[in-house]
Amino acid sequence: MSGFDGHNVRFAGIAAAVPQQREDNAELTSLSEKSKNEIINQVGIRYRHVAPTGVTAADLCEASAKPLLNELGWDPLEVGILVFVSQTPDHIVPGTATQLQNKIGLPQNSICLDLNQGCAGYVYGMSVIVGMMNSFGIQKGLMLVGDTITKMVSENDNSIYPIFADAGSATAFELDENAPRMVFGIGSRGADFEAIHVPYGGFRNPTSEESLRPQEVSEGVHRNLNQLAMNGQAVFTFGLSTVASEIGKLLKETQMDSADIDYLVLHQANQFLNDTIARKVGFPKQKTPSSLHDYGNTSCATVPVTMVSELSHQLRTKHLKLMLSGFGVGLSWGNVILETDKVACLPIIEV
Amino acid sequence: MPENSELFVEVFRSLFQEADGINENTQFRQLEEWSSMQALIVIAAIDEHFGVTLPEREFREAKTVGDLYRLTKKG
C-alpha cells in the first residue's frame, strides 16, 4: 500500500538514548587499513555506541521516554497507547510493550503493542500509532523505537560488525484536530527477506547444537546461524532502485519536490548509498542530515537518532516540513512527509 | 542504457585509480582495488550514468567488464 494519510495527530516531541560505552572503528585490529578506510570514509561510520550485557533496547527507550514526558509536562497516566518497535525485545514471550507500560507508569487500560520492524520501523510504527489514535480517539500516544542489534552480530564478522550500534528513542503524539496531515508511503518486498536475516533461533529453524557452531562464511566473516547475516549488495540495490523511486513517488503524489521539504532524514546505513539516493531524488547534501559518523547503524533507531543529534535546534525553534525514509530488513520501506512545529526535543541521552 | 561498450568501459575506468589496462575482457573481481565497497560504487555509477540498477544476483555472476555491459543492455 502506498500513499495514505494520517489525520488529526500532532508530532509533539522526541528524545533518543544511546549506551555510554563507545567503540572506535579506527581501533579495530581485525580490519585491514583499506577496509578501515572504506568503513570510516565511505560507509561513513567512525564510532558505535554498544550496549553492555544487561542493557536492552527497552532500557534505552525507557531512558528516552521518561525525560520526554517530563519535558512535555505529560502525566504518564494520560498516555493511552504505547507502540514498541524493535527486533531485540526483552523476552520471546511476552511482548516488551507491557513491561514498558509498567516501568513508565502508563495506565492499565492503555493499548500496548510490539511491532517487529527494523530499518523502516520508525515510519511503520508511526503509521500504526497515528492511525489508531485517530480511529479510536486516543488523546496521547508514545512510540518507543529501539534496537540492540550488536547483541545478535558476531564479533568475528568483519562484513557487519563495524557497522551496527545500539540506540533507543521515544516519540510523543497528541490528538489535535488542527494537526497537518501526514502522508505515508509504505511497503515491503517479502520475497527478499533473506537479504537481512537471522536464519536460526525462531520456530522455523529452532536453535540447535549445529546452529550455534561458528562457521567461516568467507575470509574475515565468521558467524553462527543464530547471528545476523546481511547481503549488503542486495540492500544497496534495494535502496538505489525501490527506495529512491518510492521517495519520488510520494513527492509526486503530494505535488511536492525537494524545495518544499526542509530535511530528508534517511535511514543511516551507508553514507555513500544515502548520498546517491539524495542525488537521485534531487536533495542537496545540506538537506540530508547524517549521524553515521558518531552513531553508526542503529537499525530502527537511526531516523530518531539523526533527528535528535542533527536537527534538535531546528525541531525546537522552527516549523519544519520533513520527509523521513526508513528502509531495510523485510525488505521493507516506510516514507512519510510530516510537519513539526517547535516540538519538544532533548539532547541525546547517554545511559 | 549505454550506447556502446566503449562508453561503458570509460565510465567503469573512471571509478578506479589504477585504470590502465582495464578493458571489456578485464576480470574486475581480480583487480587490486576491488572490494565490496568498490562493488557498490560500480553499481551506483551504472545506475547514475545509464539508468539501470543491476540486479544483485546477476551482478554476482558477472565476471568481466563486458559481462556488466551486457547486463545493462538486458535491463
Briefly characterize the structure.
The complex is a heterodimer of chains A (351) and B (75). Chain A is α/β, with parallel strands linked by helices and 351 residues long.
Describe the fold and architecture:
The complex is a heterodimer of chains A (351) and B (75). Chain A is an alpha/beta fold and 351 residues long. Chain A has a single domain, classed as 3-Layer(aba) Sandwich (Peroxisomal Thiolase, Chain A, domain 1). Chain A is built from 8 helices and 18 strands. Chain A has helices at 33-43, 57-72, 97-104, 121-136, 232-253, 271-280, 292-295, 302-317, and strands at residues 2-6, 9-18, 22-24, 47-49, 81-85, 111-115, 140-148, 166-175, 182-188, 196-197, 215-218, 221-223, 229-230, 263-266, 319-328, 332-341, 344-345, 349-350. In chain A, the strands form 5 sheets. In chain A, strands 2, 5, 6, 7, 8, 17 and 18 form a 7-stranded mixed β-sheet that branches. Chain A starts with a strand and ends with a strand. With 75 residues, chain B is mainly α. Chain B has a single domain (5-74), classed as Orthogonal Bundle (Non-ribosomal Peptide Synthetase Peptidyl Carrier Protein, Chain A). Chain B has 4 helices and no strands. Chain B has helices spanning 5-13, 36-50, 56-61, 65-74. In chain B, 21% of the residues are buried. The mean pLDDT of chain B is 90. The interface between A and B is medium-sized, with 20 and 16 residues.
Q: What are the salient characteristics of this protein?
A:
heterodimer; A: alpha/beta; Peroxisomal Thiolase, Chain A, domain 1; five-stranded mixed beta sheet; 29% helix; globular; B: 75 residues; mainly alpha; Non-ribosomal Peptide Synthetase Peptidyl Carrier Protein, Chain A; 53% helix
What is the molecular shape of chain B? globular
CATH topology of chain B: Non-ribosomal Peptide Synthetase Peptidyl Carrier Protein, Chain A
| Subunit organisation of the chains | heterodimer
Instruction: Give the DSSP E fraction of chain A (strand runs of 2 or more residues).
Output: 25-35%
Could you tell me the mean pLDDT of chain A?
96
Which geometry of chain A do the CA atoms define?
globular
**Spans where pLDDT lies below 50 across 5 or more residues of chain B:** none
Query: Architecture of chain B, CATH level 2?
Result: Orthogonal Bundle
Strand tally of chain A, please? 18
| Most extensive interface, chain pair and sizes | A-B, 20 and 16 residues
The biggest beta sheet of chain A is recorded as: 7 strands, mixed
